[in-house]
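Supplementary material to the annual report.
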Amino acid sequence: MAVGSLGSSTTRTKVAPWNDPVIRGWVFQIVVVGLVGLLAWFLVSNTIENLQRQKIASGFSYLHREAGFEIGDTMIAYSPASTYARAIFVGMLNTLKVAVIGIFLSTILGTMIGVGRLSPNWLLAKICECYVEMFRNVPLLLWLFLIYKLISEAFPGPRQAINVLNSFFLSNRGLYAPVPLADPTYHWMGIAFLIGVVATVFVKRWAKKRQDATGQPFPTIKTGIGLIVGLPVIVWLLGGAPHHMSWPHLKGFNFDGGIVIQPEFTALLIGLVLYTSAFVAEIVRSGILALHKGQSEAASALGLSRGQVMRLVLLPQAMRLIIPPMTSQYLNITKNSSLAIAIGYPDLVAAVNVTINQTGQAIENILIIMAAYLSVSLSISAFMNWYNKRIALRER
Amino acid sequence: MRKTTLAAAAGLTAILFSGTAMAGKDLDTIKARGNLICGVGQGTAGFMMADSQGKWVGLDVDVCRAVSAALFGDSEKVKYVPLSSQQRFTALQSGEVDMLSNNTTQTLTRDTALGLDFTAITYYDGQGFLVPKKLNVKSAKELNGATVCVAPGTTTELNLADYFRANKMTFKPVVIEKVDEVRAAFFSGRCDVYTNDSSSLYATRAANPPPPLKPEDFIVLPEIISKEPLAPAVRHGDNQFADIVRWSQYAMLEAEEYGITSKNVDEMLKSENPTIKRILGVTPGMGKALGVDEKWVYNIVKQVGNYGESFDRNVGSGSVLKIDRGLNKLWTKGGLQYAPPIR
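Predicted assembly:
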């Protein structure tokens, strides 16, 4: 560049335009953009022409038509008379349900195993190592098949269900448990719970400020539990302590009443959690091992117990190394949940696949599914990036 | 607005469809390739299933073989592509397979919005329910509250929902993509009922119960809740190929009606009956009109057999399924199988 600009100021007329590097650069870039555009135009117009030639329906109007198929596991009201849009939404919620619970459980299990692998206890460390190697070296799909087979083959039919205290029933139809009948008090209890959570956050901030200023510790955890559990209980008592329950009971082919956790959901959740926590464990372990040995030695020298060293000194620092790769694992759980279709859990992919087949509109439906996964994944990334920034080392 | 969304959609998956545009007419492609790519199901005994030597056999497979015999004079120039109920239409639309012969029910939506053309009906079927005998259920009307195993993306899945709605009953579906897994879930007791076309139910009952379960432990309930005309399908856009598939099927029916079998077809060449002479190409003209060899019916019957032979061998009295011909008898015997004349 420097030579070019120097040349243009002195020997401007000597260079022919096809030898001028600036003009050449522009020409090449225009050609590349043009080729890409041409390719895109070809693909788009080719598809439209093919769709029209074969008279395949297109557009999104099918979303408002009646779906006509039943879904086995729904979080919101759904019947075959609902629309395709609602069927896809039901699938989306099912995906979110398994992803959120899966992320929560695999974080806890993975952290425990990752820390366990660093334990000076030989047996515990070896068990955790075996766990990691066993689960991360076999494809998730095989684990799902195995777990689903175990659940559907090992448990008895509903009429011979395993009966726990006459209220919990375990069979190959899932786990049936009693559930409280709807009562307005429960809404207020929910609000009380939220107030408890918010109050705990404020108490924690205040306690930290006080401890920083005066050095006096405050029993934040106990107060927090008191607020979060106590407030709803008080509301429950004020609301007349409603205690009517819907009990599961055998009726016809199956249980009626109560709530059910279906085997497909259970199998998918267990599979995802066991598989992902093996990766989480390695991430946690690497995060901790990356810290200088002096950190734990210094903390021990201060007289902190092993648990305190881990909780107060090592984990908070390791978190900065753990969060970025952890985000990938959380995204993986969400995306891997689409394997649900193999064992019959009605997730987003299952709902969309049925819709594709009944409407024949593959392109539109694939777009929906991509948009759905993309928005979930971007939300998780955005949240984790925000959290990562928050805990990042602040240089003062 | 619709245009733009479509354009965006098209851009993303255009690669799927780019093959067919460049390929030109389906029939030319098949002839140039030298074999027929036939989309079949994942394995239903009697209809389409790979035998112990890995050779595909069944009533639906025989349709592919007949088309191959008409096109190439050789019934074995077929490549079989097993497709799940969810993959099949996309596979046909995108040109991955030339035709489907996999127990697909002909419906209005599929014939129009999905861009398919159904040829002739291979098998008149209806949806039924398979239940374990020990449940003591005698009628589908007693199935309120049952858990039902069903394959996704089928008319079966929709009929099931319709039937329970119409009879004010509820059910829980268990929907798994692979048909083997659906059956496994049923036999393990995850579901009370397995629903499918009744032909498939008989096939499942005969071939699939894992030991120690026996076929006799299961019954097919008497109710037939739907019409399921099963027919091969081709893409919109190549009428000549659709004609060849359709008339290959009719040829098998005509052969049965006129008593031409794989065993006597050579003697039949000497027949004085003008209809038989026309069918077997002794009097030329039919093959030319269809755009295939004049001996097309001879090749089909010699190598594949007539419809009755195919039925008996695969699903009827000569098979383990022992399905009664019922609606699938020839029209001359009180059934619905009726081929327009080859003339």
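Chain A touches chain B through 59 residues (CB under 8 Å).
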